[in-house]
Amino acid sequence: MKFGALAAALLLAAGSALVIVLVFVNSSSPGGATALVPTHTPVPVSPTATPSPREWAAALHASRGAEPILISCLDRNSDGLLDAADSPDLTGVDIPFAPGKACEDAQHRRDFYAGPPSDPAAYSCDAPIRPLLIVAVGSAGTNLLDTTSGESPGELQIVAALQDRAADEGVATDTVLAAAAVFGADQPQTRMEQWLAHDLRARLDALPCLRAVIIGHSHGGVTVTSVTSALDGAYAARLYGVMLDRTIALYDRPAAEYPARTPLLNVFQTNEGWHGERLDLSNVTNVDESAAQAPIAPSDGGGGPALVSHKTLDDSPAVQQLIEDAVLAWLRQP
């Protein structure tokens, strides 16, 4: 769909000139929290629209043949409820589905993708450097089988760049991709929050050295705050959250849960007047990227570059670089 920043990502991967000064600056949040946004000299690349892969996982640099799933198809006893009765691994999960909606249209829809690790041998607590789990959550309408659905494929350039840059630093990664909603669930967005919190808790418990960054655009940004809030008490030191224009507009509830300790990077824009919002919390670093540019979204006619919008904030090369640098700075902390 959008993949307007792919040219920039390829240019960075090719080794174009980039100067990164890893100095920490004061957060724009109250309390003077330390920002995890390194200052940098951005690469001067004009955003250019390019074709996107058909499926989300096809854009990853370490997919290793894994396939996305439709969560509702895990309702193996067909009782319209996903819980421990379907599998012991689902103990603690309680996701009801609307009548007749479980595993509906399974040939054309997927809402969850996981792994495997980029380097299975190094994805271990015996490795010299702790491994990293990268989680990306799309906006409303995301279908992992179709990058022309939703408005968040720019996240995939961020994920692919993080895979490559982590590998350059000797960090093994695993990747989870998710839609902003569990297809067919009674409360689609809320149930995705619950699904991801369960999944991440299991992964963090299974690998006590594991760290995780959770990146979400639009409704996916709400997923970030809700999931990190649910995990904050036990895992705050191992989590980092990134929101791209978080919004609860058209969400299935007025989600207002925020973590108290997990560091969050809130990247937003105000060019449309109704999207984009600062979060005045001590653990949040707010970055207004309204001046950044990206290709105009195909759903808005295409073209550009132009000032970012809610749809295209994730497509901006400057925004992508900002997020990648921030995650790497967080990883380098003791």
Structure in words:
The chain is of the alpha/beta class and 334 residues long. The protein has two domains: 6-65 and 109-331, Alpha/Beta hydrolase fold, catalytic domain (Rossmann fold, 3-Layer(aba) Sandwich); 71-108, no CATH class. It has five helices and 13 strands. α4 links the parallel β8 and β9. The protein is globular and about 50 Å long. Mean pLDDT is 86; it is low at 1-35.
Unreliable stretches = 1-35
- Classified by CATH, the class of the largest domain is Alpha Beta
Shape: globular
Proportion in helices: 10-25%
> How are the strands ordered across the major sheet?
5-7-6-8-9-10-11
Count of the domains: 2
> What's the CATH H-level homologous superfamily of the largest domain?
Alpha/Beta hydrolase fold, catalytic domain
CATH architecture of the largest domain: 3-Layer(aba) Sandwich
What keywords describe this structure?
single chain; about 325 residues; alpha/beta; Rossmann fold; seven-stranded mixed β-sheet; 5 helices; about 20% helix; globular; disordered N terminus
Question: How does the SSE layout of this entry go?
Answer:
Blueprint: H1 6-13, E1 19-20, E2 40-41, E3 81-82, E4 95-96, E5 112-114, E6 132-137, H2 154-168, E7 173-178, H3 188-206, E8 211-217, H4 219-235, E9 239-244, E10 264-268, E11 284-288, E12 293-294, E13 306-307, H5 317-331
Parallel strand pairs: 6-7, 6-8, 8-9, 9-10, 10-11
Antiparallel strand pairs: 1-2, 3-4, 5-7, 12-13
